[in-house]
Amino acid sequence: MHHAVLKKIGVIGPNKSGCSKELYDFGIELGKRLSSPGRIIVCGGLGGFMEAVCKGMKQSANTFFGQTIGILPDAVTDYANAYVDIPIATGMGIARNSIIINSSDIIIAAGGGAGTLSELAFAWQQKKTVLCVTQFEGWANELAGKNIDDRGNGLFVPVNTIDEILKYLDNL
Amino acid sequence: MHHAVLKKIGVIGPNKSGCSKELYDFGIELGKRLSSPGRIIVCGGLGGFMEAVCKGMKQSANTFFGQTIGILPDAVTDYANAYVDIPIATGMGIARNSIIINSSDIIIAAGGGAGTLSELAFAWQQKKTVLCVTQFEGWANELAGKNIDDRGNGLFVPVNTIDEILKYLDNL
Amino acid sequence: MHHAVLKKIGVIGPNKSGCSKELYDFGIELGKRLSSPGRIIVCGGLGGFMEAVCKGMKQSANTFFGQTIGILPDAVTDYANAYVDIPIATGMGIARNSIIINSSDIIIAAGGGAGTLSELAFAWQQKKTVLCVTQFEGWANELAGKNIDDRGNGLFVPVNTIDEILKYLDNL
Amino acid sequence: MHHAVLKKIGVIGPNKSGCSKELYDFGIELGKRLSSPGRIIVCGGLGGFMEAVCKGMKQSANTFFGQTIGILPDAVTDYANAYVDIPIATGMGIARNSIIINSSDIIIAAGGGAGTLSELAFAWQQKKTVLCVTQFEGWANELAGKNIDDRGNGLFVPVNTIDEILKYLDNL
């Protein structure tokens, strides 16, 4: 499939330390239902919510190689979660968050601390739409429906359920 | 002066388009009064609040070369504001915000849209103290006194005036 | 397929302006014959030799999605060649060359000017083996069989034909 | 002094492990004699040749603060050599070499292994003149007077002594 047809979906949210059991389970379910021939995900490649969505995708019936891209902070690929098909070793530390945003057509955010907040800020600067899940505490919920500054408007779309996310993506 | 003694103060805030006349004037005054032999500033090197603080420093009676460092997004130094002594051409675009934070001992934030928000998020991740000016609208005021996530506590110190900023810095 | 089993092959060589007809044709043939279920390529995502190898892979009988990764210099994916499955928009300019090297298990180099030379130098620093094609003029041929400095030894393996490349990869 | 008048001189060469006693001594002498009100140096901020030139500058009679800029690979400034006035913590690892080149008006290279070679390759891509010292073994000597590829011509100027370097700089 050509990359112009393919939809590249950024997935941002907490690492292991900030990811509740509920959010992890939501991530697995989201990954399973996101999985479709025309979609791949781009995430930070580590644990927590990133791992959950990758895991869900790889557990889906129609999974395929190349679905899960991990943009890693380290200069080696060793620390990618086990469900990343394609690990990218940036060696840039937390500055790699900008590459996740730049490489995504649209983004899904859930929960989230400071790392996720930096990604939301980059997404706004690059005028990317972010589907902000509202059912978990964190910056995705905090900023859902809000404008960060005057350069954009309405880019942070509140979504409450996986059904709403899929409906939004199907209508693109 | 050795760099371990020197205090490197990050300065973050809006570029030209997001910087009011009041904030620009505050920036000039801040730069003038910050200027002292033991302090240099590290900023994004462009217009608006960054330019104002650089300008104030260079207008101060005790200004010296090397006081104003501009960490630029471009791969050339041409777009640095006229008051930057040392322009660094990162060629990294908005990801350069992480370098401003990494290179600062302590940070002053005022006003601010999405770019400043990404810097505040990076500062939190790197556990740097940020003096958040509360008298201007923007993310510095919005997050003053708040905790971004559970990894830190009290790093975003509210300050209302230049006197408070100088008092805090003198007590370090 | 799990990324630890998968072989990630870096492909470095000239962009459009430095790529002869002969080298481009060699690249297409190389891509066709490299294509196998256990291999993906990581390249700079632009024209010339990078495009040729991507094109060959996508023309092979056993091509699959996710085989061709393009690590782009720009902050947008628009300038990826048409045969890149997964474009990564680094926004880092020429510094992105380090990410290509970091993300590869082993590298194939052919022809090459200054950009390729920077990649060869990074590969040496990261102690990655590079198969250096000797039948085309450029830095791959120039450095084949040589040691860049004392930190490594024998990392730049001379190879003259596609048969030799495949034999080396099969023996890993 | 305004940064457009100031000459920013890149200094590239081996780290501690690749720097002979002779090259270190040459670096100190070079630093001492380079020191003048209109010049600052931009280097990688670590040991070996970088440290020697910084040390020489700070030992010169007319030294001033801000003369020595260290563009560090780490996300912290702790590992800068003791003679760096202004340490920049990029957190980008070896990719930071591109920032040294981008931020320099002209470059001096001596000795050099793989790291220096990557910097020479970046300098060529950015069309920066490099004064290549020919009296020490390494990539600076190896490439002195040569063209890396067809995009430029004569950018790598052979120089044998500090007198020749100063003469070249004075004539700019």
3D structure, described in words:
Four copies of one chain form a homotetramer. Chain A has 172 residues and is α/β, with parallel strands linked by helices. Chain A has one domain (3-170): Rossmann fold. The first copy, chain A, has helices at residues 21-34, 49-59, 97-102, 114-125, 139-143, 162-170; strands at 7-12, 39-43, 68-72, 86-89, 106-109, 130-133, 156-159. The first copy, chain A, has a seven-stranded parallel β-sheet, with helices on both faces. The first copy, chain A, is globular and about 40 Å long. At the B-D interface, strand 4 and helix 3 of B face strand 4 and helix 3 of D.
Biggest pleated sheet of chain A: 7 strands, parallel
Radius of gyration of chain A: 14 Å
Instruction: Give the number of helices of chain A.
Output: 6
What's the order of the H and E elements of chain A? EHEHEEHEHEHEH
The amount of beta strand of chain A, in percent, is 15-25%
Residue-averaged pLDDT of chain A: 96
First CA to last CA of chain A: what distance? 18 Å
Strand order of the largest sheet of chain A: 4-3-2-1-5-6-7
